[in-house]
Design a protein that fits this description.
- The protein is an alpha+beta fold.
- It has two domains: 268 residues, QueA-like; 100 residues, no CATH class.
- 23% of the residues lie in helices and 27% in strands.
- It contains ten helices and 19 strands.
- α7 packs across α8.
- The longest helix has 20 residues.
- It is globular and about 65 Å long.
- The relative contact order is 0.19.
Amino acid sequence: MIPEIHMEDYRYPLTDDRIAKYPLEQRDASKLLYYHKGEILEDVFRSLPSFLPEGSLMIFNETRVVPARLHFQRETGAQIEIFCLEPADPTDYNLNFAAVGTCAWKCVIGNAKRWKNDILTLLNPENDPVVSAMNLRAELLGRDERTGTVRFTWDSPDPFSRVLEICGTIPIPPYLNRESEAIDSERYQTLYARIRGSVAAPTAGLHFTDAVLEDIRARNVDIRKVCLHVGAGTFLPVKSSEIAGHTMHREPFSVSLELLKAIRHRQGRLIAVGTTSVRTLESLYYAGARILRDGEPSDVAQWDPYEPFVISSEVETRVGKGTEPTRDVTNVTKSHEISTDEALDAIISYLESHGASELRIGTRIIIVPGFRFRLVDYMVTNFHQSESTLLLLIAAFVGDDWHRIYDYALSHQFRFLSYGDSSLLVRAGLE
């Protein structure tokens, strides 16, 4: 059943002056808010390791932001901004980034009404000879209500990943109300970013330094990685008054077989760095349940968490009581809700039987109050926008205390959103 969530109940007063427009000079110098069982403490992020339970499993998202914003112009002089969302031809990220000469992407197009059927040329106001030699062009193949499919062509022998590095800019969030600058190329990227594909950073990871990571390992915390490519939908506001009217965007993710086994057999707490890691980890249950139900993995749907996943099995029942001889044997079909262990075992078994080393699917999961967390115990996260799906995720994790947490952050001069301060939240009900 789709939860009844009124977005006005998740509104708080965030003024522009509380939004961090730039990162601090030192990544780990940001403030840290710690929440556990109603108690709120304030510290600095470099102290994070001291709050983590020893023997825990800590999951990071190693996606890497690509310079996906490109600026073109028509022969008329009209400027068109193209924001690459996800590969269309080839559809595989690695193959698309390796493409030479041409590829296509699903894109958000700025000033789209002024782009007809002509081929655009890249803006090059500095007359950079390297950019000129690439001669990057864009052709509109088709469009829908919010996006379009764009064919890119270029003359240099470089792969498309190199083309983006030379011609594109990092797509910083629109609420920063400024253009991308040189500092964003480094600081709107985690230190451990490795796999290209995101158009937005998993910002909870921006605070981590090598020193903090070393201190975490010193507490016998096992650091592991997943990959979820963050889409531009992370910036889309909830325009409907009820969450039921909001459509979640698809994000591809991958989790290794080795990590799935570590999660299945872990002894300590599971700590997720960022809402993207939370969405990845909590999607695993529904991926495994779909295998048990359908025989193979498939994308996790938006409302999967709010419908029970059950399986049926035949149970042998013997008729007879006490010392009486058994008179009959029948097979009774019984149904039960799939457990988390069963779901994880199903993914592991499927991957092993198909000789695969990782699970690679997509998720549209939405986590709102009423969601049952099956895996994540602790969450490292920044402070999110009012009336957003990410704030709903926080409210689902800590309950009504999200009001107290955000009131504290506002009254104690915490910095908000992507370049803002951090928090370590312990799931409500966890001892």
